[in-house]
Amino acid sequence: MNNIPNVKLGVIAVSRDCFIVSLSRDRRINFASEVRKKGVDIFEAECVVENEKDALKAVEEVKKQGCNALIVFLGNFGPETPETIIAKYFDGPVMYVAAAEESKNNMINGRGDAYCGMLNCSYNLGLRKLNAFIPESPVGSAIELANLAVEFVPLARAIIGVKNLKIITFGPRPQDFFACNAPIKALYELGVEVEENSELDLLVSFKEHENDPRINDVLSDMAKELGIKGNKYPDLLPKLSQYELTLLDWAESHKGAREYVCFANKCWPAFPSQFGFEPCYVNSRLASRGIPVACEVDIYGALSEYIGACITNSPVTLLDINNTVPEDMYEEDIKTKFNYKLSDTFMGFHCGNTPFCMLCDGGINYQIIQNRLLENGGEPDITRGTLEGDIKAGDITFYRLQSTADSKLKAYIAEGEVLPVKTRSFGGIGVFAINEMGRFYRHVLIEKRFPHHGAVAFKHCGATLFSLFRFLGVEDISFNRPQGMLYESENPFTFRG
Question: What is the rounded CA–CA span in Å between residue 115 and residue 444?
Fold first, then answer.
C-alpha cells in the first residue's frame, strides 16, 4: 500500500499553571508507555505547555521529529488558550484527551480536574473555530487513553490522505449514468484536488507506452498473481501491462502539489473498442496498492474507496448494490446456516475491479454484458480483461461519501459480512448480508437518493468512518437501524409479518 500516508504520532502534555506541572508530565509518560506497549510508536514533546510561548515551542518540537498527527494530553485542567492554539499551529490532525483521577489516596495534590478542563477545552476550540478530534470517551486511565491513541492512527491516516489527495478522472460520466454524477464543489471544500481529462488524453498516453521496456516485468508479475488457472488469456497481458504503466506514470507525473492520487475512469462504451480490452483487472491491481480506480467516472466512489484504504491500510473495492438473492438460494444455502432474513441479503457486483487477493479462484475473463453489445455475443476479444470470482467470505463495511445536487455532503455506513455462498454468477461478485438491509435499502439508499455504487472495506471499520465523516463536517450520516428503531421516513403502521 504505497499510496497511503504513514502516521508519525506525537503527544504534547499541557498543564494549568495553578496545578503541579509534574502531574501532567508523569501522566503523559505513563500514557505514552502504554501506547508503545500496543505497538504504536509515539514521540513525547519534552515541553509541557503552560503558556502560549510553550505552545509554539512544543509544536516546533514535534514538527522537527516529523510528527504529522498529534495528541494533546490534558494531564490536569489545562491552560485554555495555549492548549487550543496548538491545533491552530500544528499542520495535521489533532486529538484531545484527558487523564482520569488515579487513586482515592491522592486526591489533593494528585487531583488534576481534567474532566472539568476538557469542557473548557472544547468550548475554546469552538470559539476559535478549530477543527480537532475529541473521541467518544475522552477522559480515562493511561490504558484507556492508549486504546484511543491506537484508534486515532487510522483516523489520522484518512484525514491526512484526504487533505493531500488528487482525484484524476478520464472521460465524462456515461450517458444515463446520472447516479455517478455529483457536483465536485464539496470536494474542494474538503481539500481534495480534482483533475479531469478526456479519454483521448488517456488513449494518447497509452499509445506512447507501446513497447515500453518495463512491460515484460509487469506481465510477469500479472502472470505470477493469476497463476495458471486464472491466466485465461495470456495473449492479453501485454496490453494490460501497457495500460497499467500508463496509469501509474500519469499518476506520478500529474500529482502536482499533492502526495496521493486515485482515479475515476470511464470504462465503457468506447473504451473496449479503442483500447482493445476491458480495464478491470488493471483497476483491481492498482486498488490492491492503495490506488483505487473507480468505475464509470464515479468521483465520490473513488474518494470513498480511498478513505477506506487509508482507514484499513488494506485493499478495498467499489461494487454495485446489484441484485437480490434468489429465494431458492436463500432457502438452501443461507436460511438454516445464518441468522439472516432474505431481505437482509443482496449481491454486490462489478465487472472485475475487486483485488485478486479478495476473490475465491479469481481469474481474467470477459465482460458478458459488453460482449453482447459490442461483439454480438460472439467469441470475446475486445471485451476481455475483467477479473472474475466470488468475493471471499468475511467481515465488511459497506459505505459511501456523496454530494447532493446542492453540494452538501452526506454519507452512509453499514457493517455486515460476505457469506460463504457460491453466487453461480459472473463478474466479481459476492452474497452480502447486512442486518435490516431491506429497511436500510428503502429508507436510506432510496429515500436519500444514494447511487448504486458503494465502497467496500474488508473489515468492520464503521466507528472510524463515522468519526471521520463527522470530522469532515458531514452532518447527515446514515446507518442500518436495528429493529424497533424507526427511520424518519418509515411508516410506523406498516405490517411486518
Answer: 37
> How many Å apart are CA 414 and CA 462, to the nearest integer?
7
Q: What is the DSSP string of 229-296?
A: HH-S-GGGHHHHHHHHHHHHHHHHHT-TT-SEEEEEE--SSHHHHHHSS--HHHHHHHHTTT--EEET
Q: What is the largest CA-CA distance in the chain?
A: 84
Residue 465's closest CA among 306, 362, 311, 361? 311
Dump pLDDT digits (tens) for 360-404: 999 999 999 999 989 999 999 999 999 999 999 999 999 999 999
191: left (phi over 0), alpha (psi -120 to 50) or beta: left
Q: How is the chain split among helix, strand and coil, in percent rounded to 5?
A: 40, 20, 40
Task: Name residues whose C-beta falls within 8 Å of residue 63's C-beta, 6 or more positions apart in sequence.
Answer: 90, 91
Q: How far apart are CA 13 and CA 118, in angstroms?
A: 13
CA dihedral 120, 122, 127, 132 (to 10 degrees): 150
313: left (phi over 0), alpha (psi -120 to 50) or beta: left
CA distance 416 to 434: 4
Peptide bond into 269 cis (omega under 30): yes
pTM metric for this prediction: 0.95
Q: Which three cell numbers stand for residue 144?
A: 484507556
pLDDT in tens, 34-91: 999 999 999 999 999 999 999 999 999 999 999 999 999 999 999 999 999 999 999 9
CA distance readout (Å), 178 to 161, 172, 197, 262, 451: 27, 11, 19, 21, 9
In whole angstroms, what separates CA 278 from the centre of its chain?
25
The SS3 assignment for 356 reads helix
